[in-house]
Write a structure and sequence with these properties.
The chain is α/β, with parallel strands linked by helices and 223 residues long. The chain is 42% helix and 17% strand. It folds into 2 domains: 31 residues; 190 residues, Rossmann fold, CATH 3.40.50.360. Strands 1, 2, 3, 4, 5 and 6 form a 6-stranded parallel β-sheet that branches. Helix 2 crosses helix 6. The longest helix has 30 residues.
Length: 223
């Protein structure tokens, strides 16, 4: 009888400890934040693409109080494309200054934006994506991160979705989780610069940017 009581007491105690452990982990997890990065890949610093990215980030931040956002505007920066080892030094450009943000332990989502040039992403965006290859070795640091894309074109149907698809294809190489927006922005956010750089006047496009930010935030939390 003594042994049974002792065993019963041990199980109850162990259960209490286990529950306490789970509770403490839950509290710890609740204290963590989820970082969502927004990257504007336009050579024009602070213009329409950067504004659209900020709109998406603001919407993402509103999803949950634990979400942190950070904007990286590549406008004015020099980002060289990838080069084989020993065939051109590229350590003097600005890429290394932004790299730490992509290695943040609480990184949960990324929103990439590009202007549309000749129905393609910008050359700055292409160079940036090539250099992200450093995050694939020795391990896939961006695997499982939620990635959404937006683009800004000179016409309503100016190749925005083509540019979005190009970026999504590149990010699949990282085993990232590609997400679109809510209805009206299923593939990503598409904006139209028809108002002399006042992109906020494009109500449809701004709404799609907000929907993309919300969806990336939701996915980042789930992941």
């Amino acid at each position: 009888m003594q042994k049974n009581v002792g065993r019963r007491k041990f199980i109850q105690t162990a259960g209490t400890v286990a529950v306490a452990g789970l509770a403490s982990k839950a509290v710890f997890a609740d204290e963590n934040t989820t970082l969502i990065l927004g990257i504007s890949c336009s050579p024009r610093k602070g213009k329409t693409t950067a504004t659209a990215i900020q709109v998406a980030l603001d919407a993402a931040k509103g999803v949950n109080s634990k979400i942190e956002v950070e904007m990286i505007d590549l406008g004015g920066m020099t980002i060289s494309g990838w080069a084989p080892p020993g065939q051109g030094a590229k350590t003097t450009d600005d890429f290394e200054s932004i790299l730490p943000s992509f290695k943040a332990p609480n990184l949960g989502g990324i929103i990439i934006g590009t202007p549309v040039y000749f129905r393609n992403m910008s050359s700055l965006c292409a160079a940036f994506l090539e250099r992200l290859g450093v995050l694939r070795q020795p391990e896939l640091l961006l695997a499982g991160k939620a990635v959404g894309v937006l683009s800004v074109g000179a016409y309503r149907n100016g190749g925005q979705e083509l540019a979005i698809q190009q970026i999504q294809t590149a990010m699949l190489c990282h085993e990232a989780v590609i997400v679109g927006g809510k209805p009206g922005a299923h593939q990503g956010a598409t904006l139209w610069n028809a108002y002399k750089d006042d992109i906020m006047k494009d109500e449809f496009g701004i709404d799609s940017a907000k929907k993309l930010g919300i969806r990336v935030a939701e996915a980042a939390i789930l992941l």
